[in-house]
Automatic annotation (TrEMBL):
Gene3D superfamilies cross-referenced by the UniProt entry: Aspartate Aminotransferase, domain 1 (3.90.1150.10), Type I PLP-dependent aspartate aminotransferase-like (Major domain) (3.40.640.10)
Cofactor requirement: pyridoxal 5'-phosphate
GO MF terms held by the record: L-aspartate:2-oxoglutarate aminotransferase activity; pyridoxal phosphate binding
KW Transferase (keyword) present: yes
Family listed: Belongs to the class-I pyridoxal-phosphate-dependent aminotransferase family.
Domain spans labelled Aminotransferase class I/classII large: 29-396
Record protein name field: Aspartate aminotransferase
EC number(s) from the headed UniProt entry: 2.6.1.1
Catalytic function, reaction form: L-aspartate + 2-oxoglutarate = oxaloacetate + L-glutamate
PANTHER family to which the protein is assigned, alphabetical: ASPARTATE AMINOTRANSFERASE, GLUTAMATE OXALOACETATE TRANSAMINASE 1, ISOFORM B
Bilayer-crossing regions: none
Additional detail: In eukaryotes there are cytoplasmic, mitochondrial and chloroplastic isozymes.
Encoding gene, per UniProt annotation: GOT1
Length: 401
């Protein structure tokens, strides 16, 4: 008899399970379109040159491995919040906007979620259908009682179901937390227009809903970090109080370094100290102190004009490659006469395309062609390159026949 005898096995995590199956697959034509990570034209992970440079500077400057403060390395959190919200120096000085270093985007959501439950007595959160598959687990583990969804993807039109979205927000109980993808919505690749964001803000204000922005792809939608921050900056301008998670996994390529930031926007100076002290308690009880390396790399880049420019240029190169792959995939599908319309592939932004393929199409393609994608039909466009794109288009064509 073991003390572990009652433990039931959890379902595998789809995306990491696919990576494992892909790695074990010996077929030379195999293609991995599953995990959300950038790939070069050669199909390789990308160690961004400016990151390497910054890393060398970090190592030169490192004299010890003492603990960071519980709320993180301030040059990093300040620069990260500025990258997100623009010219906020005055607000940072008065303390009504501050960042908390986090275990990447996931950790920011988790700490923010727990804060909202414990200190704002929030019980219900909303996420889009579909959304990043981890939102549910992270927010439930934060202590929320109820997960609800708002409509987002219109399967038939392969575009956003705006009216459904507005209606669901209008019906949300006051004080619900609404998870909003700041840009490059995962998995659909479809973002609201400025007008639609304005409408969402109007409803949220009227219904007293609490925005929790999730910004995991700043720069990955348009190639321009300023443009991609429009939604969250609009909410700031409208006087909302909110939380926003940031991840540097994708846009700086620091996936395993877990560099993230959780920005708090408050409208009154009275509660700054109380809020900070309670976030401190949450972090203290969860993992005590954040890690150093990734945050130093990001801070080195963001606080140095030359390195920052190089990083911004690299982001443009990466997003241009993605845009080009969208175009070529669509062209290939149209040339092959693949059943259906394919304009959504080029209308979508960010890393992902929600192709509209069903789970049975995905299974068929995986089995016959050794191409790996999520069963929702989401593909990581970065996994495409000139060597495999025609093969992928042919596989899709065949599956839809
Ligand atoms: N939010 C969204 C929407 C994401 O897609 C991801 C990464 N897949 C994250 C948050 C968090 O990623 P990380 O913890 O690596 O920063």
């Amino acid at each position: 008899m073991s003390i572990f005898s009652q433990v039931q096995e959890a379902a595998p995590i789809e995306v990491f399970n696919l990576v494992k199956l892909f790695n074990e697959d010996n077929n030379p034509s195999k293609v991995n379109l599953s995990v959300g990570a950038y790939r070069t034209e050669e199909g390789k992970p990308y160690y961004i040159p400016v990151v390497k440079k910054a890393e060398e500077l970090v190592l030169q400057d490192t004299v010890n491995h003492e603990y960071l403060p519980i709320l993180g390395f301030e040059p990093f959190t300040k620069a990260a919040s500025q990258l997100l919200l623009g010219d906020i120096i005055k607000r940072q000085e008065e303390g009504t906007i501050f960042g908390v270093q986090s275990i990447s985007g996931s950790g920011a959501l988790r700490v923010g979620g727990e804060f909202l439950v414990k200190h704002l007595n929030c019980t219900t959160f909303y996420y889009s259908t579909p959304t990043w598959e981890n939102h549910h687990l992270v927010f439930m583990n934060s202590g929320f009682k109820e997960a609800k969804t708002y409509r987002y993807w219109d399967e038939e039109k392969r575009s956003i179901d705006c009216n459904g979205l507005y209606e669901d927000l209008l019906n949300a109980p006051e004080h619900s937390v609404i998870i909003l993808h700041g840009c490059a919505h995962n998995p659909t690749g479809l973002d609201l227009t400025e007008e639609q964001w304005k409408k969402v803000a109007e409803i949220m204000k009227e219904r007293e809903l609490i925005p929790f922005f999730d910004n995991a792809y700043q720069g990955f939608a348009s190639g321009d970090v300023e443009k991609d921050a429009w939604s969250v900056r609009y909410f700031l301008d409208q006087g909302f109080e909110f939380l926003c998670s940031q991840s540097f996994s994708k846009n700086v390529g620091l996936y395993n370094e877990r560099a993230g930031n959780l920005t708090f926007v408050l409208n009154s100076v009275d509660k700054i100290k109380a809020v900070k002290s309670q976030v401190t308690m949450i972090v203290r009880g969860m993992y005590s102190n954040p890690p150093n390396h990734g945050a130093r790399i990001v801070s080195t880049i963001l606080n140095n004009d030359e390195l920052k420019k190089e990083w911004l240029d690299t982001l443009k190169i990466m997003t241009n490659r993605i845009k080009n792959m969208r175009k070529v995939l669509r062209e290939n599908l149209e040339e092959l006469g693949t059943i259906g319309k394919w304009n959504h592939v080029t209308n979508q932004t960010g890393m992902f395309s929600y192709t509209g393929l069903s789970a049975s199409h995905v299974d068929y393609i995986q089995e016959k062609y050794h191409i790996y994608m999520l069963r929702s039909g989401r593909i990581n466009i970065c996994g495409l390159n000139m060597n495999n794109i025609k093969y992928v288009a042919e596989a899709i064509t065949d599956a839809l026949k």
